[in-house]
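Example 9 (inverse folding). The structure is encoded as follows.
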């Protein structure tokens, strides 16, 4: 007796395959976060709670220092906005895709990370796949990988002592790998040079502590100016 796969199974299968590289990065990054958090004497239960309700990657690593120094809530809020404000800018390019997800749109916005954005903006069209469910599965799977990794790391850190030096670089390493893959997938290098120039220019003008938001804004402006050239170079 043959069992025919329905579209939901096919869609989930493709989403799982698509997010496989993120799974390895997020689980290992989550483990690093869980280990680092428990090594500072913070109760392990904070790891899954933060990962499920905050889900902010690098901000969660920074938050560990906030906990230890008893930083006030206003400072935490300002730093969080400055670090994650990039999502408000590049998330605009995904509104059309998010609109397809209906009532899940708020969840899609909440679970938008750098890595999820990289996947959603470089996806190839797949036949026999429900697009809205495909996007939802990608976001929810990535969310699950991160939460699972932090739970595993917190449990391990609560039972075994580890040397946690350098663990906070895990997410940076993952993002660099994704960046390299994106560069390889495009013919034109103009967006790369625009981003690099804006980043270096921002560091030179205002310092590395405050360079993120200005460099993103400048990159978007220059990409809008050179949009036609980028499209032409990509199709040549």
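The amino acid assigned to each position is listed next.
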């Amino acid at each position: 007796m043959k069992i025919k796969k329905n579209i939901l199974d096919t869609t989930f299968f493709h989403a799982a395959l698509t997010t496989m590289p993120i799974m390895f990065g997020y689980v290992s990054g989550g483990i690093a976060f869980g280990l680092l958090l428990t090594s500072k004497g913070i109760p392990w239960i904070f790891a899954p709670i933060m990962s499920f309700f905050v889900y902010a990657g690098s901000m969660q690593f920074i938050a560990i220092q906030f906990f230890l120094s008893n930083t006030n809530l206003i400072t935490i809020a300002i730093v969080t906005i400055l670090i994650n404000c990039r999502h408000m800018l590049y998330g605009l390019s995904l509104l059309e895709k998010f609109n397809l997800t209906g009532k899940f749109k708020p969840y899609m916005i909440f679970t938008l990370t750098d890595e999820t954005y990289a996947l959603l903006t470089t996806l190839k069209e797949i036949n026999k796949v429900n697009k809205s469910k495909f996007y939802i599965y990608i976001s929810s799977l990535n969310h699950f990988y991160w939460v699972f990794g932090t739970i595993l790391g917190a449990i391990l850190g609560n039972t075994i002592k580890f040397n946690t030096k350098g663990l906070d670089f895990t997410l940076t390493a993952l993002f660099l790998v994704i960046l390299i893959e994106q560069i390889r997938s495009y013919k034109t290098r103009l967006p790369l040079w625009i981003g690099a120039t804006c980043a270096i220019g921002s560091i030179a003008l205002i310092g590395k502590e405050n360079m993120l938001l200005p460099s993103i804004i400048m990159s978007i402006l220059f990409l809008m100016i050179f949009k036609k050239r980028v499209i032409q170079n990509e199709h040549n």
